Amino acid sequence: MQRLIDGIARYSNEVHPANQPLFDSLAHGQSPDVLFLSCADSRVDPSLITQSQPGDIFVCRNAGNIVPPSDSGLSDDGVIASIEFGVIALKVSDIVVCGHADCGAIKGLLHPDSLTSLPHVTKWLEWADHGGHQEPERAVEANVLAQLAHLRTYAFINEAVDVGSLTLSGCVYDIASGQVRVFDGTDFTVPNR
Ligand code: ZN
Known about the structure:
The protein is 40% helix and 17% strand. It has helices at 2-18, 20-26, 46-50, 78-89, 104-110, 119-124, 136-151, 155-162; strands spanning 34-39, 57-62, 94-100, 167-173, 180-183, 188-189. It has eight helices and six strands, in the order ααβαβαβααααβββ. The termini are far apart. β4 and β5 (180-183) form a beta hairpin. The longest helix has 17 residues, at 2-18. The protein has a six-stranded mixed beta sheet. The chain is globular, with a radius of gyration of 18 Å. It is of the alpha/beta class. The structure holds zinc ion (ZN). The site of zinc ion has 7 residues, from α5.
């Protein structure tokens, strides 16, 4: 905890003042254009990966970057509430679902016996999907595609996609190499710049 207190003091006294114009511009509102849904894993930092500034991306994180589908019975869950706010109120133009290598949620999905002491995780992973792949990397990719499909089970998302105001994308972050593979409609590949 002391490390956090020290970090906050350094932020408040040094980092924030050095970026005062940015924070002045953000003080009374946000208009991010991307909603970034990633895992809560400590090694996945959406702003760092995408080199985004405060105000750039609206971030939603949970174990396994999961979106329970509309028929999950979890209509009051925090994930879809955050996504609804992003799409309807903030009018983001993109939702990106970002999985990652070595994802504990997917490893748990592949090895349910490791989850016996984690009943809430076990329940939550009902909404994950490894697509029948036992190889972790493929399973992570399959889960990203499953969550993109879950997004389409919500009418407000479907309608925004259909009128062209919203795009859904999927990607997978590799922690060791720093590369991000993006789903191109067929496969996950590192895009050319
Ligand atoms: Zn993860």
